[in-house]
Amino acid sequence: MSKIESLPSFEQYRKALDSERKKYTATVSVCGGTGCHAHECVNVFDAFESEIVHRGLEDSVELKITGCHGFCEMGPLVVIWPQEIFYKQVSPEDVPRIIEQSLLGGKAVEDLLYQDPSNGGKILREDDIPFYKKQMRILMDMNGKINPRNIDDYIVQGGYTALAKALFELEPEEIIDAVDRAGLRGRGGAGFPTANKWRSCRQAKARDGIKYVLCNADEGDPGAYMDRSLLEGNPHSVIEGMAIGAYAIGANQGYIYVRHEYPLTLENLLTALDQARELGLLGVNILDSGFDFDIKVSVGGGAFVCGESTALMASIEGRIGEPRVKHIHTAERGLYNRPTNLNNVETWANVPLIINRGVEDYASIGTEKSTGTKIFSLVGKIKNTGLVEVPMGTTLREIIYDIGGGVPDGKTFKAVQTGGPSGGCIPESLLDTPVDFDRLYEVGSMMGSGGMIVMDEDTCMVDIARYFLDFLCDESCGKCVPCREGLKQMQHIIADITEGNASPQQLDLLKELAWTVQETSLCGLGQTAPNPVLSTIRYFEEEYAEHLEEKKCRAGVCKALISFEIDPEACTGCLRCKKSCPVGAVTGEKKQPHTIDQSQCEKCGICLEVCEYEAVIRK
Amino acid sequence: MEVNFSPTLTAIRKHGIGRSNLIPILHEIQGEYRYLPEGSLRSVADIMDIPLVDVYGVATFFTSFSLRPKGKHQVTTCMGTACHVRKSGGVLEEAKRFLGVEPGQTTEDMLFSLETVNCLGACAMGPIVVIDGKYHGQVTPAKVKKLLQDVADAERVPEYVEDRVAAVL
Q1: Which of A243, A361, A597, B75 is most buried, taking the most CB atoms under 10 A from its CB?
Q2: Whole-prediction pTM
Q3: Gap between the Cα atoms of A289 and A281, Å rounded
């Protein structure tokens, strides 16, 4: 790879790549996202590699490991182009059959195709699967088509043309104006208009002329992983977006702040940056435009609060990740006290799309005040777990039922949690709420970064509130009193409720504390921390009442309020539960009904799990 | 002059002594030792001219750093929301009971360290337990017990070896 020195040679480079790739008659793409990695997709890739070499097909079949396709439930995924045949749960043993039948024979391997759960029919193409059909994948589109560690894949698909257009055809103000008219709002959670941020950073005076653009890839919301998938599967879209933003703002240095829990993302990102530098798409005088820009990567240390802008900047500077009061905006004084603009991964990835598709086209997607698409990670008690990209304004019901396939195992839907620890739980009655920034806020939740956790009848809403409080107490940085102490007191009350030790009056105290924490905390983490508690009280007050008054947990989750018993009629005396009980609470002889000693039982539920005769009952 | 190639000094040489390099340097040292030894923190503070209290502050603020040695096998339970609603709590309880330690601790024989993580971003497989870098999906309390038992069994010293040791001693 050698440096591309000018715009004409960039176009030449792309054309050369295009014609070089015409030699391939087929492409095999193996999904290499973290989910598929966990399903050991690497073995599948290796099997393809050796089989292709073995049959001498290297010159006609292109093999690549790509980013996340989103349908993690069905991994490892393999797609055969150009027919777009979609195979799920592929094992290395299936590889010879796929090559034989699909690559050489042009036919599909029936048993590896996705089966439509509604009518049992086999589905050939990825786009026709119900999970994908209702999605609009413009950000995730390239994820399944490119190898994130090969910049040429991105360039062949039209990558870096938006940057070229920005540098050679647009003035910085025109870019900000375009982002403004496109209506782009920050995908990190609060939905602040991106152009406003850029404009104030552009206008801010830097004492030494240095400004920064930052990318927040510290995806800390548990249950949300769309930023990881984007950065891991298509790092160049984020790099390109940042370069365009930096040009618009007048910055020459960028930082990407990545969670250390995402090792694969980090590897892919560092490779992508190296390749962009080698080609001269980052560095000094990019494509002879006179614009210099480079990006450094900063790795986090596992602190949720570092997703907050000022805490993130402190962490990049090598200090403790504590937020500060923002009476002076970071657009004026941010990283190293210089004007700084921070956007999250998904926001940056939208920027090249706006330039390439044009403002009108982009703004036509979504709703009037929330334009474009949003990626959600649809997880929890849902049939089709995975990443879902839909136009803003799609209803929760469409996402959960049409795309997600609803709740599995015949259970009833109870709530969907959005917005992570800052968001709230939305009940069944509000499922027709269109998902956009403002409507989610109205119903007491928020968009957050896009986690969507589905809960069924087996989920206790008080326990969920407790879960988030435990999380937030753990992650509170401790700088301000309301968050540090207030959350702790709320945690005590919630613990009392789940353990059956609380009086009904304590619920009022809990609410009062929640409002105080909301109003008086220093940063966004504290101000939104009570949301999970308040939203569960708002929509599921009857469950709180049951815990408080009847000392009952209808979902059977709160340990202090449940017990396990053995039905002597159903018990065959097989000894299985007795052997499995970790504390020896089960007694009984072989072929005689067993009993559980309640004073010893720790309510771990292992007996229920191992019993094959449904003799263990949870009360 | 004799050059000291200790991991600590190598990390500092690689990243440089600017304050912004502190976290990457600590990551590197931890990668080498699996924890941050006191001596390393002192060297870092001295060489980089950062007050020891600040180095200690950063090393204790971020959850990925540990000041205590880690065991041979790393067991991590994901406590993300998706795993939680699929009952990862019971899985953690069982892991705690089996190992006899709380999250963040290491067993006395230095074989196992138990950790929790807020989300691994592989929610489709939840509840997830990672043992020595390998992801195990759809884990139940009974399954985690078996997984840990298998690792413990593989570590068990055969009786005839123990007998020989006893005989010689």
Answers
A1: A243
A2: 0.91
A3: 11
